[in-house]
Design a protein that fits this description.
The complex is a heterodimer of chains A (about 350) and B (about 500). Chain A has about 350 residues and is an alpha/beta fold. Helices cover about 30% and strands about 25% of the residues of chain A. The chains are: A alpha/beta (about 350), B alpha/beta (about 500).
């Protein structure tokens, strides 16, 4: 491990190359570069998750922490190859001051050549991804609306801002639910005529589940709000012949009930973020089913026809917040440029 | 199988895993080694990954006077020891509640009637519409008995049960062509041929499946994958262990029947086959079968093959006894523990390219790999002294351990002279990668339950493989294997076999 304080982007590139050489892994099977955008207090959490994900997808991990935008421009970096962060080669970068607005100037030279870039926001998702160059440069973008103050509103935001290649971890969280529900219809051709979801009003997973059922089945599922459970509680599908399939969450298991059959329990564990991230990294192309579910949920159509490439739109938070001081602040990043 | 009608599934939704229909897994010989080490852990791992259907029951059949409880504790121990995924008590509790033990011997009609009744019972109690897979984790000698019992009770009958009935057979698939045909006929008669799954666990390994991806997804390798560029191919399966507790079986079969017939010929088929028109099981099997049919044996088997038997020696810092001193091995045994053979493939692609296949026990280390050795460049514009250390370009597919691919090519040694030497570029499929990729049995058990036959050799392949082995065995009948010291790369005769044509074994 190498720690660099008050350093420059060039020094970081050199240090990473030196670490790789001394670690002996001359040729390694890098599948992608994972850029994790994290706030300071979640760095450990993001590291733990990325370590799990890197076990399945060898990657170069670039953790970017941006804080104290008003302070002096400064870059601290920590380079880890092997060891603490598992098989990943990782650079944890803390950026302060105006440099934080130009994080890409440090990150771009560190991207592994010609492998896909995935950017993951382990914090409140950005309003508009085009404003964050770290999102524009990525082939895949992973947000996590559950971390927003109003997750369902954040999801709607994601729909409006959608570009193919975006996904949200809320979607990943219902893969197991979807598996159970879809599995119920493998052995029957019964038509589904109605659905009821019981979940808290602010639950983004329920919103996506509703959107998914709506887009796949052409029905409008009911959403019953509940306060009893902190997360999605149950999904029930009604068939044309009166049969009913219901999946109810009980701790780490799901109670699977179906008309005319004995109730059964199936595993429905809450997976660590690392497992969810690994699932996301498995596919680096656009998830069309997600875009349909998201579109149905937000009432927007043809999301998958939007252009997959974003164009960076410069937005200065200082400018927005304090219009008067803006002119001075535009002077540029203090000393971060390579 | 997927219903065409399920609106919740589409091909684009690749997150949703394949989940079998509600079904029962019936394990014969559930208390045996394979079942405890591989099967039960695989079932637990599948359950833990949420890949088993809501209605799933394991019926264990074995000859023991046991209650369900005893069986459960054996299964618990086995699952805990062998599980790949983290241990979760609630998953196990639920799975274990669906375990049932049916005691009985294979000639006990009442026990099989009881088993049939239990299966029928599941229809009402667990919503399992007659689907069941029968896993034969038993010695081959017992196959006919069990199959006849299944036929007698009608348990193997798809129509009668109202669902699918499949059977899973482990190697050995017979002992020679004749016994293999007899066994295949028997199994195919009781079950229908497409319901028979022959497990060759090598085909469940990620790297083995990756051979097809490597060959057919890239444009880099296929143009040179032929006799114009390939000098020879070496397939090695080395084990550092001895015969362990399998003395009786091993001494009756030997290395060729034990692994050459199945694992290695399957690897050879995957490396040598033409591109299948699609990855439909039928198509892949058709191409594999063509290669197997095109295999040619050495004209003079005594010159083109070497059998070996290990003497005592040291392996990995420990003393190892010789084969003849192993427990329950007759001291005059002529069974081989090492085989090397020069095979050819009679088609346009591989004409004149020798395939050297070797397998051995008590080798220096455990490794399975396929090495493609390319021809030297037609012209080397260097001073002969400068390229003395330049060998064949090689592409090595390492199957186990440390799954990966190695590319070996010439490169200039830094300095003022133009000295060219071999370097190896080693792509580790990642030790960590392998960690999270499913165990071969996990994959294969799931494939059986889902009904995907891609990774299972069919009867024709098995029989064709025996057609390769039988003439070898016939030629070896009255010969004694060459001795080699435990911890060596086989007998000297094997090195000489390659040296005669100016080649050498790659040190694996």
């Amino acid at each position: 491990m190498i720690g660099l304080w008050d350093t420059t982007g060039n020094e970081v590139v050199k240090a990473l190359a030196a670490e790789r050489r001394s670690a002996g892994g001359v040729a390694s099977g890098l599948a992608l570069t994972l850029v994790a955008v994290v706030e300071e207090k979640k760095v450990r959490e993001a590291e733990a998750a990325a370590t799990i994900a890197a076990a399945a997808h060898p990657c170069r991990l670039l953790i970017v922490v941006r804080s104290d935008l008003d302070g002096r421009s400064r870059l601290d970096a920590e380079i880890v190859v092997g060891g603490r962060l598992g098989p990943a080669e990782a650079v944890v970068m803390r950026m302060y001051g105006r440099l934080a607005l130009h994080a890409e100037s440090v990150v771009m030279p560190l991207l592994a050549p010609d492998v896909p870039v995935v950017t993951w926001w382990h914090e409140d998702p950005p309003e508009v991804i085009a404003n964050d160059f770290l999102g524009v440069v990525a082939d895949r973008r992973i947000t996590d609306c559950a971390q927003a103050a109003d997750p369902v509103a954040a999801l709607r935001r994601r729909a409006a801002d959608y570009a193919p290649g975006d996904t949200d971890l809320t979607w990943t969280r219902i893969t197991l639910w979807r598996t159970l529900v879809a599995g119920a219809f493998d052995t029957t051709d019964e038509r589904v005529v109605g659905a009821t979801i019981v979940a808290p009003e602010k639950d983004p997973t329920a919103a996506l589940m509703k959107g998914w059922l709506q887009s796949r089945l052409g029905i409008v599922p009911k959403w019953e709000f509940t306060d009893r459970s902190p997360r999605m509680h149950s999904v029930e599908l009604q068939c044309a012949n009166g049969d009913c399939v219901r999946v109810t969450r009980e701790e780490n298991t799901a109670l699977f009930s179906r008309t005319g059959q004995e109730d059964r329990y199936m595993p429905l564990p809450r997976r660590p973020v690392g497992d969810e991230l690994a699932e996301e990294l498995r596919r680096l192309d656009a998830d069309q089913i997600y875009s349909e579910a998201l579109g149905a949920m937000a009432g927007l159509s043809d999301l998958d026809k939007k252009p997959p490439m974003r164009v960076h739109v410069w937005r200065d938070p200082a400018l927005a917040a304090r219009a008067d001081e803006a002119a001075g602040a535009m002077a540029g990043p203090g000393g971060s440029a390579a | 199988m997927d219903h065409v009608g399920n609106p919740l599934r589409t091909a684009q939704d690749r997150r949703l895993p394949r989940i079998p229909e509600p079904c029962a897994l019936v394990i014969f010989g559930v208390t045996g080694d394979l079942s405890r080490k591989k099967l039960i852990p695989a079932v637990y791992d599948l359950a833990n990954r949420g890949l088993l259907p809501p209605g799933f029951v394991v019926l264990g059949f074995a000859r023991r006077d046991w209650g369900d409880g005893d069986f459960e504790s054996l299964a618990l121990e086995a699952a805990k020891k062998g599980a790949r995924t983290p241990w979760r008590e609630d998953v196990w509790q639920r799975l274990a509640s669906q375990f049932q033990f049916v005691p009985g011997s294979f000639d006990d009609d009442a026990a099989f009637d009881h088993l049939a009744a239990t299966l029928d019972d599941l229809r009402e109690r667990n919503g399992i519409p007659g689907n069941a897979a029968f896993y034969f984790s038993i010695p081959p000698a017992a196959f006919p008995l069990v199959l006849n019992q299944l036929a007698r009770t009608g348990m193997a009958d798809n129509a009668k049960s109202g669902g699918w009935r499949r059977v899973v057979v482990e190697k050995p698939f017979g002992n020679d062509l004749q016994t293999a045909i007899a066994l295949n006929q028997l199994v195919d008669e009781v079950f229908t041929p497409q319901d028979v799954y022959r497990i060759d666990h090598y085909l469940g390994k990620e790297t083995v499946q990756n051979i097809l991806a490597l060959r057919f997804a890239n444009s880099l390798f296929e143009p040179v994958w032929n006799s114009k560029y390939v000098d020879s191919v070496q397939i090695t399966m080395a084990e550092d262990v001895g015969i362990g507790t399998r003395a009786a079986f091993y001494d009756a079969s030997g290395a060729a029947r034990d692994v050459l017939q199945n694992h290695l010929l399957q690897l050879l088929a995957l490396v040598g086959m033409e591109e299948p028109t699609s990855f439909d099981p039928q198509e892949v099997r058709a191409e594999k079968l063509k290669v197997l049919k095109a295999i040619s044996l050495p004209k003079d088997i005594s010159k083109g093959s070497v059998r070996g038997q290990y003497l005592q020696g040291w392996v990995a810092g420990e003393r190892a006894v010789g084969y003849l001193e192993e427990k329950n091995i007759p001291s005059d045994s002529t069974t081989e523990t090492y085989v090397a053979v020069r095979l050819g493939i009679q088609n346009r692609r591989w004409a004149e390219v020798p395939f050297f296949v070797r397998v051995g026990k008590r080798m220096p280390r455990r490794v399975t790999e396929i090495a493609i050795l390319f021809k030297r460049a037609p012209h080397l514009p260097f001073d002969p002294a400068d390229v003395e250390m330049l060998g064949h370009n090689q592409l090595v597919i390492r199957v186990q351990p440390d799954e990966g691919v190695v590319l070996k090519f010439g490169s200039k040694v830094p300095g003022t002279t133009m000295e060219v030497r071999d370097i190896a570029m080693d792509f580790q499929y990642g030790e960590a990668f392998t960690e999270s990729s499913p165990e071969a049995y996990e994959r294969l058990v799931l494939d059986v339950l889902v009904g995907d036959r891609t990774l299972f050799p069919d009867a024709a392949e098995v029989e064709q493989s025996w057609r390769v082995i039988d003439p070898l065995e016939a030629a070896w009948a009255d010969t004694k294997p060459e001795p080699y010291r435990a911890g060596e790369w086989g007998p000297r005769a094997s090195d000489e076999m390659l040296a005669r044509e100016g080649r050498a074994w790659r040190r694996a």
